[in-house]
Amino acid sequence: MTAMDTATAGKIELRIPARSEFLSLVRLAAAAIGSQMGFDMDAIDDVKTGVGEACNNAIQHASATDRDIQVVFSLQADQLMVEVRDAGAGFDLSSYSEVDLDTVAAEDLPDSGYGLLLIQALMDEFDCLSQPGAGTVVRMVKRCSRPA
Amino acid sequence: MNFEINSRTVNNQTAVVAPVGEVDLHTAPEIKQHIAALSDQGCTQIVVDLSRIDYMDSTGLGVLVGALKRLREKDGELRLVQPTPRVMRVLEITRLVNVFQIFHSEEEALNSLPGGGA
After folding, report:
1. Please, what are the domains in chain B?
2. CB atoms within 10 A of CB A45
3. Is B55–A56 a contact, with Cβ atoms under 8 angstroms apart?
4. By C-alpha distance, which of B77, B117, B76, B74 is closest to B99?
């Protein structure tokens, strides 16, 4: 039985206060789960970063509330799906404007906003559902690279 | 999480900042404050040694970008040294690898600064 076989079809849920000191705990869990699924080191780092970035956003959205952040890891046969949910203020996705990082001058670079770019690059699938006043759900998938 | 910042001043204008550990939403503000304090003291040429950073998220990248912009406003500079492969990867994904001057050693980075950092 491989590491991934033992890990399939499970669901692991974490609930953390919306505070940055708990981020390392979530990343540790993400790394352990990635290892359990048989991901290689690069893929484990990708999952850690993707989950960490989603939690960063959730903490920033929800920090003004007393509501926790929920992180749900769904371990499936061929992929890991992660959902990060907050009950914060939400935001209007259409108002998110991307900077063209290939052409922007250094003095015009933003000090923030690189997180979604990292999630999109490091995870195989990424969705974000958010509406003002209705919280945010970020859903990400990392597929197992080994042959089926 | 273990995180610390080692730093030393090379001269009145130049300092080396060497954070150790994981740079994220929780720890990045410490680097921001550290560089701001050095800048307030007149150190406008900062070398950031990234050789002992296990993990850096977008908050850390934002702090480095912000520091570069603020230092250049004072005719200063920010140089990066020896990013670990993981940090290099996030610099490449965000194309910030084209924005920062990155060196293999502290000595090279210091020599690249006006006055050679001496």
Report:
1. 3-117 (3.30.750.24)
2. 22
3. no
4. B77
Neighbours of B85 (CB within 10 A): 8
Give the pair of three-digit tokens for residue B31.
């680097």
> Where do runs of H (alpha helix) occur along chain A?
3-7, 23-36, 41-62, 115-122
**Cα-trace Rg, chain A:** 16
At A131, list the tokens. Answer: 């509406």
ipTM of this complex prediction, to 2 decimal places = 0.91
B54 touches chain A (CB under 8 A): no
Domains in chain A, CATH or no CATH each: 3-143 (3.30.565.10)
Distance CA A88, CA A14 (A): 17
B104 touches chain A (CB under 8 A): no
From first to last of the 118 residues of chain B, give the pLDDT tens digit. 689 999 999 999 999 999 999 999 999 999 999 999 999 999 999 999 999 999 999 999 999 999 999 999 999 999 999 999 999 999 999 999 999 999 999 999 999 998 766 5
